[in-house]
Amino acid sequence: MVFDSLLGMFSVDMGIDLGTCNTLVCVKGEGIVLNEPSVVAVRRGTNHVLRDGNAVGIVAKEMLGKTPGSISAIRPLKDGVIADFDITEAMLGYFIRKVHGRRRFVKPRVVIAVPSGITAVEKRAVYNSAERAGARRVYLVEEPMAAGIGAGLPIAEPVASMIVDIGGGTTEVAIMALADIAVCNSIRIAGDEMDSAIIAFMRRKYDLMIGLQTAEAIKMEIGTITDLEVDLTKQVRGRDVVGGLPRECTISSSEIKEALAEPAAQIVECVTRTLESAEPELAADLIENGIYLAGGGALLRGMEQYIADCTGLTVRLVDDPLSCVARGTSVYLENLTVWKDTLESDADDY
Fold first, then answer.
1. How far is C-alpha 157 from the geometric centre of its chain's CA atoms?
2. Cα–Cα distances in Å, from 48 out to 86, 89, 99, 124, 198?
């Protein structure tokens, strides 16, 4: 441990929020130093990353839906877990090298946030990918715990703290106390599922095929799950299902509310199921402490009010919900001696 600490003086140790849609890297004293899409562009049928291994992140996302037959722009993670081991390793290696710079004589320690519902096999895949990508030592921490730490909640105290982390691939709902998770539920319904719901709605109602990036833009610009005082509208372009030619139409936020009703209801059902499983004393604490929202999905219009109406509890948005988990991994890394006995530590656990 002493030798490991000495090596840490020469390496840029980092916390990583390895998300389905975006990967964020946080470094002690510097905050978020990298925030890029979890996308990699490869030669079709191979694992060879384009542009000498640099077609990753922002560069690769620009290619989504626009690649020729010889190139594939893919997301190597699905529903918060690794779908393609080799591509994830290449992506992690690129991000680690980009942050660690030229310090090649010593490898960094890395803390990675993972969904609470993944299996031991999936945890092992994340661990091995990070290790082969260039990490000296790898620690895994469950996403709701990292979000709680990053949000500054009193999770180490004998009082209940509840967080709902709506990411790209998964929604994590947890009640924490005494530096551990008391009750937790994880569902693979989150931002990606909302995008898919918008795509299905556009095809069903307007006979218009749109891509994932267009659906995401609709969600961010006019998406809502509650009624707005002023209905927002947006011009949407895509391909006509019947004629096959490019076409555009105008949609409103009230229509998107209809499209997002099902995934939003499933998220709230997960929240209520978690509350129903809590011990009475923990549930009593939440009347005063309420629920905290984190993740990109928490920014969807009306999400706070919707969950508050369905649960009867106060719902608050954490500071900078997009980077909350990444900040938590960095704080965990700074306090390894405090946290490592209570959180997921390394491969020996699985």
1. 26
2. 10, 12, 22, 23, 33
The domains located in the chain, with CATH, are 2-38+75-146+324-349 (3.30.420.40), 158-189+261-317 (3.30.420.40), 192-259 (3.90.640.10)
Task: Specify the pTM.
Answer: 0.89
Distance between first and last Cα of the chain: 21
Q: Residue 82 — pLDDT band, cuts 50, 70, 90?
A: confident
**Residue 78: C-alpha distances to residues 66, 81, 115, 212, 256 (Å):** 20, 6, 11, 14, 24
DSSP output for 120-173: HHHHHHHHHHHHHTT-SEEEEEEHHHHHHHHTT--TTSSS-EEEEEE-SS-EEE
d(CA 170, CA 109): 26
Helix/strand/coil for 176: strand
In one-letter notation, the amino acid at residue 228 is: L
The Cα 289–Cα 291 span in angstroms is 7
Q: Are strands 208-209 and 233-240 parallel, antiparallel or unpaired?
A: antiparallel
Instruction: Give the pLDDT band of residue 252 (cuts 50, 70, 90).
Output: very high
Report whether 76 contacts 38 (CB < 8 A): yes
Contact 185, 274 (CB under 8 A): yes
The amino acid occupying position 172 is E
